[in-house]
Each structure stands twice: as structure tokens, then as C-alpha cells.
Amino acid sequence: MNIRMSEAIETLAKPADHPVLFAFDGPQGQITGRGAPIPLPRGTSRTLPDRVARAMATMGDKAILGGALPFDREDEDCLWLCPASEDAGHAASGDPQALPLRDWDLTAQPAAADYAAAVDHALRIMADEAGKPQALEKIVLARSLLIRAGATIPVQALMDRLGADPAVTAFRVTLPARGKDARRVLCGATPELLLEKRGRAIASHPLAGSARRMADEGQDRANATALEQSEKDRREHAFVVEYIMDVLGPHCRSLSAPAGTTLTHTRSMWHLGTRIEGELKDPDTPSVVLAGLLHPTPAVCGAPMRRAYDLIGALEPLPRDFYAGAVGWCDAKGDGAWQVAIRCAQISGAEARLYAGAGIVPGSDPMAEAAETGAKFGAFLTALGLPLDAGLAGVTKVTE
Ligand SMILES: C=C(O[C@H]1C=CC=C(C(=O)O)[C@@H]1O)C(=O)O
């Protein structure tokens, strides 16, 4: 179907009557896009700037663009154009009775032990290649949990529960139908800001390096201190900051990152973070175009990027699809916020596929990385009403 953008906006007269296409609720604000399901022409990262420029030329200040960029830059993105309206502040609340899930079963894909074997494999490649040109220095490997419930998973109620943590951006993005999955939604609660733009000012807040939060205050503090002092985690983090500085640098008249990292936290995880801030040379560069240039960063892929990306395809048994891509919104001025699509699931009816990954560098311990991914599932599992450590099944005991 070929739809001109001007026609698309006219068709979407009463957004409140339409289903939610995308919604974000977090430190960067509350944004909801509703409308008849009219996507922007779909395409890959290569055509993104051109498609966005054409959309922006017709959208005036009455529309907002939002959606998801896939992990794989060669896959098609999913962006929607909606009228910006005064009641678009937030989506209606979900039915609080709809959760916890009552009947469910859970399958780890791959099992924790197979994930640890893939980590071990990557570590051996790093050791073999050390010192050679284009040697693999970091890779982020992910695994997934497939949850099958007895009834349709209530996306808005889930998003409401995920958003209870003030440190995260809860999000939902309606994805294009695929096969029997007619109503696919990407839903999650990400703590990681890929790119925010207001006028000329931009910011990014990459995270890499993790430790699990503990119920016991003393143990929790000990985990945080160990993370702050971990040379392995600081190395893992530095790749991300360096990459973002390199990609954004040519687009900025100033760009800076503080020396050292800051400890940040969600309700279930500690992370190392760095807030990068800058000023664009061209304040009209749309935030979605900058997000498209940036992702996937070494927080979800690795270094060197191409080498890590190829190996992810070989070592992970399932495609990532929109996990580890980017989700966000962009207004007619190009302002907006894009988050890294982590701590999320692709939901289709009564099924949810959750994803979590961990950064691997020389010195990583395969079973500890499997445990880290297990802990990263925690927030989503809790929101569904499942046991916090259901994601740790098959992880043999590792020191916290
Ligand atoms: C890839 C994920 O997390 C990234 C973000 C923060 C910390 C990370 C880490 O310590 O490995 C990851 O880079 C994920 O949650 O799936």
C-alpha cells in the first residue's frame, strides 16, 4: 500500500479512538502515539534518513513519529506516524486485576548451560585473536525465555507495572503482523538512554557493567562496591563510551564525557553508566536519524562492531528481531528520545519472548554471565507476577 504522509495525517482524526501504536513513560517524559495503523514506508537503516526527511517535510507540527529500530541494521524498522494531540500524554491504564499471570510455563532458549558454552566459545576466539588486526575484543551475547500463558498477556497492565521503577522508561510499540502473530507488541522497561535531543542539545547515557541487586542491604552494597571496583566491568563499559563519542563526534560542535563511570541502578540491577552531552552542529538533525546512526552500540553488540555482529549471528540460536535495537519518538522539530530496547519482550497473544544479554570481555566467567542475564530478566518476570529468579533456572551457583 502506498500512502502519502499528508493523507495519513488527515485519516487519523481522532487519536483517542484508536489503539496505541507506541507509548513511552520514563525520565524523558510520557508520550503516546495513537492512530489508524499507518506505518511510514518501511525500510532499513540505509534509507532511514531519506524516509524521515520526506515524512518531516509533510508532517508540520501536528504529528509525531515513534516506534522501533531493529537490532540488525539490514532488517526493516517499524515507525509510525500519528497526530500529536493534547490527550496523547499517556495511554489509558491497564486492568490492575489482569496480572499476575495465573497459568504459565517457561522455557529457556538456549538453556543457561548452552548459553555459558557460547560465552566460552567467544572467549576462546578473543584469546586466539588477541593482538591481531580486527581482533574481537567484546561481544554481547543474549538468551531468551519463552513464556506461554493461559490467556492473552495484558500489555497495558504490564507496562503500568514495569513503569513503577522511576529509573526506567517503560515502553510498548505495536510491531507489524508476521505470520500467525497478528498483534505483536514490543514491551519493556529499559534503563538505557541511547539519544535524547532538544534543539541543539543532545545526551546519551550508555550503561555496561552489571551486578544484581540483593534484598539484603549489606549484600546489595557489597555488589555495588565490587562492580565499581571491577576492572573487567570498567573495560566492558569503556568500549561503549568510546564508540558513542566516535559516532556522534562528527555531528557535534561540542561533545564531552566525564572521566570515570557513575554507579546507577534500577530496582533489580546495578550498572556502570556515563552521561555524554553535546551540542549538534545542525540542530535540525532528527533524533531518529541520530539513533539510527548510533545503534547497535557495544552495549548490545560488541567491538569491533562488524566482527561482533557476525559472531552474534553464529552463536545465538534465535534472531534478536527488535530486541537490542532502539525504541523512541521524534517530533516535527526532530526533538525526541530514543532508548536501547533491552529488558523487554516481544509479546504475541498469550506468548512472550523475553531477551537479556551480557557483555563478554577477556576475564568474563561464562556461568556468571548466564547468571547476569538471569538477573536481567528479573524486572520483567516480577511485573508478570512470576518468581524473580525464574530466569536463573539451570544456572549453577556463582559468587554474587
Ligand atoms: C544487553 C543488555 O544490557 C546491556 C546494558 C547494560 C549492561 C549490560 C552489561 O553489563 O552487559 C549490557 O551491556 C540487556 O539487558 O539485555
TrEMBL record:
<feature type="region of interest" description="Disordered">
    <location>
        <begin position="208"/>
        <end position="231"/>
    </location>
</feature>
<dbReference type="Pfam" id="PF00425">
    <property type="entry name" value="Chorismate_bind"/>
</dbReference>
<dbReference type="InterPro" id="IPR004561">
    <property type="entry name" value="IsoChor_synthase"/>
</dbReference>
<dbReference type="GO" id="GO:0008909">
    <property type="term" value="F:isochorismate synthase activity"/>
</dbReference>
<comment type="similarity">
    <text>Belongs to the isochorismate synthase family.</text>
</comment>
<dbReference type="InterPro" id="IPR015890">
    <property type="entry name" value="Chorismate_C"/>
</dbReference>
<dbReference type="InterPro" id="IPR005801">
    <property type="entry name" value="ADC_synthase"/>
</dbReference>
<protein>
    <recommendedName>
        <fullName>isochorismate synthase</fullName>
        <ecNumber>5.4.4.2</ecNumber>
    </recommendedName>
</protein>
<keyword id="KW-0413">Isomerase</keyword>
<dbReference type="GO" id="GO:0009697">
    <property type="term" value="P:salicylic acid biosynthetic process"/>
</dbReference>
<feature type="domain" description="Chorismate-utilising enzyme C-terminal">
    <location>
        <begin position="113"/>
        <end position="376"/>
    </location>
</feature>
